[in-house]
Amino acid sequence: MNFKNIKYEIDKERKEKPKMRVLSYWAILSFFGVIIIKTIIRPKHLHLSDTFDFLQGTLPNLFAGSGLFVIAFVYFRALYNNENSIMKRISFAFAFSFFGLTLWELIQYFMGFPIDYFDILMTGIGNLLSIFLVYLLRIK
């Protein structure tokens, strides 16, 4: 399957299911959340409270998990256009996002950084928020 077919399948699904746009906006907002925290908030070294420091360190993983989930969810139908099961899409998107970002944590460990289990937890929570949004929008 080439890129032209993938783009066609995604555009076709957006026209058939307008609620997919809401899901796409969720991904865009999630990636903006990562960018804002990493480029604007973190460099200022604000230490307002321990909770703020914790969220400043882990929220990018929540947003990245939810954004990658949506990307995998949207592109699943383009890659596997014969599959139309919502559970398969959710399972694929969860596995892609969660295991991909967990693998990144392991790669960072071999680069000399400690494994942050809270980052892995927040990735899972971001995926669960996206799954909740899929069910809330009743995307089929």
List the total number of helices. 5
User: Could you spell the SSE succession in H and E letters?
Assistant: HHHHH
* Anisotropy-based shape: elongated
Poorly predicted ranges (pLDDT <50, ≥5 residues)?
A: none
Question: How many individual β-strands?
Answer: 0
Task: Estimate what percentage of residues fall within beta strands.
Answer: under 5%
N- to C-terminal distance: 23 Å
Fraction of residues in helix = over 70%
Main sheet, how many strands, which sense, barrel?
A: none
- Total domain units: 1
Structural class: mainly alpha
Q: C-alpha Rg, in Å?
A: 17 Å
**Average pLDDT for all residues:** 90
Detail the topology: elements first, then pairings:
Layout: H1 3-16, H2 19-41, H3 50-79, H4 86-110, H5 117-137
Helix pairs in contact: 1-3, 2-3, 2-5, 3-4, 3-5, 4-5
